[in-house]
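Researcher: I'm preparing a figure for a lab meeting and need a structural model of a single chain. I don't have an experimental structure, so a prediction will have to do for now. The sequence is pasted below. Please return the structure as tokens so I can convert it later.
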Amino acid sequence: MFSLLFFLFLSTFTRSISTTTAAVTTTLDVASSIQKTLDVLNLALLQRQQVKTRNETTSSLSFIIRPRSSIHRDQHHHDYESLTLARLARDSHRVTSLLAKLNFAISGTNKSNSVYKVEDLTTPVTSGFSQGIGEYFARVGLGTPVQTYHMVIDTGSDITWLQCQQCFNCYQQIEPIYDPSGSSSYNVLPCTSQQCESLHPRNCLSNQCLYQVLYGDGSSTTGNFVTETISFGNSGSVPSVAIGCGHDNKGLVAAAGLLGLGGGQLSFLSQIKATSFSYCLVDFDSSRASTLEFNSAPAGNYVTVPLIRNPRMTTFYYVGLTGILVGDRPLPIPPSIFAIDASGGGGAIVDSGTTFTHLPSQAYNALRDAFTQQAINLKPTVSSSELDTCFVFSSLTNTEVPVVAFTFAGGKTLLLKAGNFLIPVDSHGKFCLAFQPTMDSLTIIGNIQQQGTRVTYEMSKLVVSFLPDSY
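Model: Understood. Here is the structure written out token by token.
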């Protein structure tokens, strides 16, 4: 009788764990992940898949997004491992750029302001990984009459810009370069304008406002600071948005420019007075599309966590991360490791442009050790470049792996799917833990951990919400 009661108790307890955030293991679909690494290199297949996507994604939007993988193919990458190495290199530069930006802000913050009103807007978002880069792209309408361009969405930047004619130095992009002479809504900002005075740094030439943005990966853009109408298909348009019209640009490749979604006062969001925005990032190797939405109320069973403002760095979106679970066990690290310190350093941000999640060394080492200790059924293998915790699954269709979850202030827990923390690095069954250590105190929750989840930033309520399975 006692054995039966104990068995019933254990069964109930196990079911309780599996339906909450404390699941001990989760299933990794090995075969599907490996197949995607092969499909993403098959341009003809991606184009056939895109035809299907076009038929399935027709909605109230006035245009249909086309995934970058079916538009532009980087011929330098002949296998999935080379794509992974390119992603790692760009991710490293991205983190360097964010840290440099934060350190600069701590030593001397920028202040800016502007005034615009928003309508409810939405635009589709696709993965740009087929180009060997980790950003995501939205197709945005610009000018009068409207021309559409693929632009990187970036929550870590404020300035929106795109390449413009006349181009003194421009990289290759998908669409023809924007020509402001063909738009009746294009206007150059004078040096005395409020928007120009908010730029840091800024320059003036013949009373025309000039901007310059430098990124840690060597990318840069320089040109006129102007106003233009931005359109989002049939869902609306916003006039007189201050953007950079870049005549001297390098580094992005394929994208026409960048849509600045940071929290600073010159960002697209701040200019149009958006109270919230959300996105769902598709898998890197996917040909599917999702949406970037403004002022759309979250719906469903969201995990809602505090949005924290750092007065020294208004661009970044900080969240109240308090810990990490591996299996059902919290890592032995103090919550203070994820907190913003008195100088404005540290803290944990959610970023659309960083690929991997970067943790302070103490937190990363604890995560790596706990994962490998619990992954006794997994076959370890040699590290892959900067990813030092790897396994080989070449003979498996699927496998059980220890679950990983983030814990936040207020007792909220975000459970990650296996594919959000164990990723293929080649097409032969080698998978690695998608986290990296950093010597800095800033934690960055990257886009691999966000894939398949609708992330909603409600600036007016100071919360960030996560809704998994939101393709």
